[in-house]
Structures are given as C-alpha cells and as structure tokens.
Amino acid sequence: MEVHVLKREFLYNGVKLPDTSPTMTPEQVKDSYTHLYPELATAAIEGPEAVAGKLVYKFVRAIGAKG
C-alpha cells in the first residue's frame, strides 16, 4: 500500500491562495488571510474536493443583507 500526501489549495473569489502551512487547519489558514481579505472573517469553508491530485478548499463569503 502506498500513501500519497495531497497538497492543499485554497480558493477565494477566483484567486488561488497558497497554503500558508500544511500543519494549520483550514480554519487557521482562513484566519491568516483575513488581513488581506477582511470579508473572510465571516466566510464558510467548502471542501475539500480532490482535483488533479490536490485537495481544494473554497472560502465562500456569507450571503446576507446588511442592517
């Protein structure tokens, strides 16, 4: 039996975001990007989905009305 470690990829609004650290959870990675994308603070995480030998996570903004 062979074990293959799949690399992670994070997507937000069509932008590929590098995995800041493979030891971090997807939630921690999301938090690390909130300084660049403040709207990620309330975003949901979808995935992972195996695509082309990678685990792809998507950060999806929360949809709702202000006020």
How would you describe this protein?
With 67 residues, the chain is mainly beta. It has one domain (7-60). The chain has one helix and four strands; from the N terminus they run ββαββ. The protein has one helix at 26-32, and strands at 7-12, 15-17, 44-51, 54-60. The chain has a four-stranded mixed β-sheet with strand order 2-1-4-3, covered by helices on one side.
For the largest beta sheet, what order do the strands appear in spatially?
Answer: 2-1-4-3
Structural class: mainly beta
* Outline type: elongated
**Stretches where pLDDT falls below 50 for ≥5 residues?**
none
What percentage of residues falls in helices of 4 or more residues? Answer: 10-25%
- Helix-strand sequence: EEHEE
The whole-number mean of residue pLDDT values reads 90
Give the count of helical stretches: 1
Distance separating the two termini = 55 Å
Please specify the SSE layout and strand pairing.
Blueprint: E1 7-12, E2 15-17, H1 26-32, E3 44-51, E4 54-60
Parallel strand pairs: 1-4
Antiparallel strand pairs: 1-2, 3-4
